[in-house]
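Chapter review. Work through the record for Acid phosphatase before attempting the end-of-chapter questions.
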Amino acid sequence: MVETAASSQDLSSWNGFQWRRKIETFGFNDEARVASGANGEIDGICQHGQLTDKGRETTYALGQRLRHLYVDQLGFMPQIKQDTEDMYLRATSITRALESMQQAFWGMYPPNARTVDFPPPVIVARPVNEETLFPNEGNCRRFRQLARLFADRAAARWNESEQMDYLNKIWSKYMPESSPKVAVDAHPRLSGIMDTINATDAHGSATKLPSDFYDKKGRAILDRIAVEEWFAGYNESQEYRKLGIGGLMGDVVDRMVSTAVDGGWRSETSASGSGNPGAGKSIKFAMSGCHDTTLAAILSSLGGFQNESWPPFTSSIAIELFSQAPSSRADAGTMLEEFSNPPVAAKKGGALSSLFGGSKSVPQQLAPSATARASLDSFPDESREIMRKHYVRIRYNDRPVRIPGCAAKPENHLPGDETFCTLDAFKSIVDKFTPKSWTTECMSNLNEGMFGPGDSERIPADS
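Structure tokens for Acid phosphatase:
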């Protein structure tokens, strides 16, 4: 392992400190002993929350797929990278999320695809109390209340059901004496049993539980109940959407609007933010290490998670921004390298261009964005027209997602393909669950029940 360490007493110089780790645990009579793996190995043992070797393998493969699509096939990102100034890399404070993002980046840009003088990439992190890369139940009091209310409802609905009886028939004999019954809110919780089953199943015979846990019918019941417990709130409560995932989606939309309308989005926390912000590049590609609850929250809030199972390991969502080229200059199959402002006037080739890009003319300094959290109605007609010529597509595990609000009207999507949503329509959808102030709204409506005062936060069943 390598970590940064001061190489002088006055902290004027730093270096990489290489070291090996072994994990110690309790042995017989509490005697200390070294922890070992299934085959007796004592090196490379994971701590709680770290990415396993299998996880590193699959996230590296995800990065390779990103390279194949955005570098090799589309030519949107360069073959060789000399820096990450046009990339925005971010991860939560959970170790496996950071390691997943690092592995995916490494797969997309391995050492032979980086220049010799490639500087260390900047990876953005937030304090956990301000984290929006996952539904932050621990630091948003109102969301925590809502999550518990929906979990309690799931327990009341399923604990005495025929389906739960089946789970108890096959699994209760393995439960602890202090909590012998399988239930949504038992100890362990039903979702915790699911996590254990999925993790052990993913890593082969060395980690397998008794075969009863892999019963096909039992796992289908387990998945259905867990998905309802954790994600039904996004289908039913506007407030659940706002506090659970609205902050992140608001940021995503703000950045796409800046790209389309202003000619590019720039970040003071990207690699270009470490120097003169006026000299930095606009962001073309963002990659974030997040969680299964993040992905399901995004899809559910957009209406794209109907009848889906719990996201499998190494699941991913790609949120892509495309621009429409003038028909007189369209060259089908050729990707635009970047957006400009005006977004298409100075560009050549390509019916559509993918992801984030920016113009080569940059402002002298980064000022607060005038479009951040601005309502759609506040944009002038010229900007709205630009947004109607940009399209958003979401791909979940490499599969395009149909968003009902985009498919509902012909003017909301690309002719002939309902999975390409106009940026104007996409922003209209996301604006409905984007909080104006996440921290303030986390302290609002406390103890006001599942749907707020007067059921004001309930989403109509037909919407």
